[in-house]
Sequence to fold (315 residues):
Amino acid sequence: MLSRQLGIRYPIVQAGMVWTAGWNLAVASARAGALGLIGAGSMKPELLREHIRKARATEVSEQIGVNLALTRGDVESLVQVVIEEGVNIVFSSAGNPKVYTARLKEAGCFVAHVIASVKHARKAEDAGCDAVVAEGFEAGGHNGVDEITTLCLVPQVVDAVNIPVIAAGGIANGRQVLAALSLGAQAVQIGTRFAATLESSSHPLYKQAVIESEDNATVLVLKKIAPVRLKKNRFALEAFEAQQHGATKEEELELLGRKREMQGIFEGNLEEGELEMGQSSGLVKEILTCEEVVRNLVKEYEAALDRINLISRNG
Fold:
């Protein structure tokens, strides 16, 4: 099974989120029994190298990987750092997995690629990926253009490919983990729940914004550029309004400007920054440690499984 292949106790992957998933979060997640990912999406090559070295100096170095956004302009340098530093697990997202998968596998890496459709799952398998992350559009951050939900996407991808499938998008508690595994996934990837932990490098105001969210707290915007799910704030609502009025790609780019992710997630600008979070934010009610998050996920999973078994026995 995938958990044994990755060397982790539980089939849980902590997502490699920008401005959130540094070495501290990855190490804490790994110590709790999950796979910890360092998010390279907001790092220059030398900063990534620093985070990798700090993580690899711990006793859980083998349970820590790196998330690479393949569309970054400096992705070649980031890939080189990953290889030079001996990282053994890489999760890639966006871009074409064919470009770097063979090179990473030659360096001894397990490679998983994030996809949002059956078509792209097949392409990732053809590219030689060891697994795919099937991410529904409930997820925070950038999403697939077809807006397929996790519940619908995961079983279709499971049926379409012969490599392990990791379910992602809107998962924050153990009941959802049980549902994802029931759909045929071998693990889950969780972002927003880990973003609101003590070890996350996101700003305290961002974490507070997560735990104060309700079921309708987020909105999908900037679809002409690349759909992104954000918590509703001044910027997100302005972007949504522009979208509703048929803004062009150029107009959306002008509205977006630069460094909004950093402003919102890392600097805590709650009105003008991008507050990337999933629909699962409505389920997150406390800022916890990674150990507490994983412990709760396992307890909730076991309680949900017991409830299903009881229903089955009693007809």
